Amino acid sequence: QMQLVESGGGLVQAGGSLRLSCVASGRTFSSYSMGWLRQAPGKDREFVSSITWGSGGTSTYADSVKGRFTISRDNAKNMVFLQMNSLRPEDTAVYYCAADRYVHTLVSLRPGFPPEYSGQGTQVTVSS
């Protein structure tokens, strides 16, 4: 089992920044690809960003956040981060940290194939 705990959400004005953090425990963190998903009210959960395992890590971003969000991980501390800049009201959602051995699972979010692990989420609200 892996436990994921997110933090760093909050209320911010449009154009502002937030940094989300996720700490993992229980399994070999460095063997898993990590990602951030989000779910806005009335909408399906969607992929935001992912980073593969390994010291370098290959990052992937949803088109809607490219150039504004940056994902990073610290394998020594079992943590993954999401730096969110130039936030927009449409970024308002509950953000979930997720882990899977296969990064494609995080990126594709196919129905019936959820990530192996995900956290409880942290609320991000962007006011206009």
Describe this structure in words.
The chain contains 1 helix and 11 strands. The mean pLDDT is 94. 34% of the residues are buried. With 128 residues, it is mainly beta. The protein is 5% helix and 48% strand. Strands 2, 4, 5, 6, 9, 10 and 11 form a 7-stranded mixed sheet that branches. The chain has a 4-stranded antiparallel sheet with strand order 1-3-8-7, with no helix packed on it.
Mean pLDDT: 94
Which strand-content bin applies to the residues?
Answer: over 45%
Largest sheet: 7 strands, mixed
Q: What structural class do the secondary elements suggest?
A: mainly beta
C-alpha end-to-end distance? 40 Å
What does the overall shape look like? globular
Radius of gyration: 13 Å
Please estimate the helix content. Answer: under 10%
**Given the structure, what is the number of helices?**
1
Which spans of ≥5 residues are poorly predicted at pLDDT below 50? none
Tell me the series of helices and strands, N- to C-terminal.
Answer: EEEEEEEEEHEE
The number of distinct β-strands equals: 11
Features:
globular, mainly beta, 5% helix, seven-stranded mixed sheet
Give a brief outline of the structure.
5% of the residues lie in helices and 48% in strands. The protein is mainly beta and 128 residues long. The strands form two sheets. Strands 2, 4, 5, 6, 9, 10 and 11 form a seven-stranded mixed sheet that branches. A four-stranded antiparallel sheet has the order 1-3-8-7, with no helix packed on it.
